[in-house]
Amino acid sequence: MTDTEQPAKVARTASSAPAAIDSKLQFSNGLEIPYVGLGTYLQSDEEAAVSVAHALQCGYRHIDTAEFYANHAGIAKGIAAAGVPREELFITDKLNPGGIFGSPGVSYDGTMASLHKSLELLQTSYLDLYLIHHPGAKGERLEQWRALCDAQAQGLMKTIGVSNFSQKHIEEIRAADMRLPEANQIELHPLCTQTLLLQYLKENNIQPIAYSSLAPCSSWRVDEGQMSAKTAQHSKHIPLMGELTSKYAVSEAQLLLRWALQRGYPILPKSSKPERVEANAQLFHFSIDAEDMLQLDALDVDAALAWPVGNPLNWD
């Protein structure tokens, strides 16, 4: 497939979409990941403790964090408060690989040290999924990936993957004769459908996981300190969103999350507000018509909005 060719977009039918909050998707290695997870970006330890406990009480079983978020202790506290057995949980964590903002790239030994620190703070002996957060540490990417492979062999996580990696970044792993990731956590929403990358991931049995699903929402990251690449030009879709939220009697967030589920992507909506944590899981009482799915797909303008410093997929 050339860079100019566009794979056909086929709307996933409601019958093939996940049916409940406990629905799971299977990786190529057999591990199952819940379709609905709780994101914890921009949450302090205190906020994470509350939101994680409430989410688990509402039926969530996937918690997503990262070394950069610095809220592992709060997540552990929330898990303990909810009383859900570890074997029922799916915990995703991400290595902060360095290499950006003037920080050095993390070495093999540094990767192992970061992992062990995360396990200690999370109060768990293993992770379900461990990712390299971004490809910014160009000189250390391969040794970081080698560390993840070795740590998995030691039983410290069930599966491994990457985040914000392009085809070029993943092919670098193949060229080093190492096995490919099981997952790639990337920004996915109607303004950023990542069509070509998704086709590549599918061809290589790499599962996409969606983050920043709510970026097209009119209220997304509007509070002080919540930076993004979003500008006024990223609002042309609002009229269509208004029509569809009225048609299905749902919120903007619910519409966008349902779109992702019908496309087959596990999702990671984040909120510190209990009512939004609950609403973000109420996605199974409606389905988006095929025609409306295609209308949402047509909003794509390749607008990756989550990173104010530029889309990591384009990094060298």
Whole-number radius of gyration? Answer: 19 Å
Roughly how much helix do the residues carry, as a percent range? 25-40%
Number of separate helices = 10
The proportion of residues in beta strands is 5-15%
Q: How many strands appear in the DSSP assignment?
A: 9
Give a written overview of the molecule:
With 316 residues, the protein is of the alpha/beta class. The chain has helices at 45-57, 72-82, 108-122, 141-153, 167-175, 195-203, 238-248, 252-263, 274-279, 290-297; strands spanning 24-26, 32-34, 37-39, 62-64, 90-95, 127-132, 157-163, 183-187, 207-211. The strands form 2 sheets. Strands 3-4-5-6-7-8-9 form a 7-stranded parallel sheet. α1 (45-57) packs parallel to α2.
Looking at this protein, list some descriptive labels.
alpha/beta; 7-stranded parallel beta sheet; 10 helices; globular; disordered N terminus
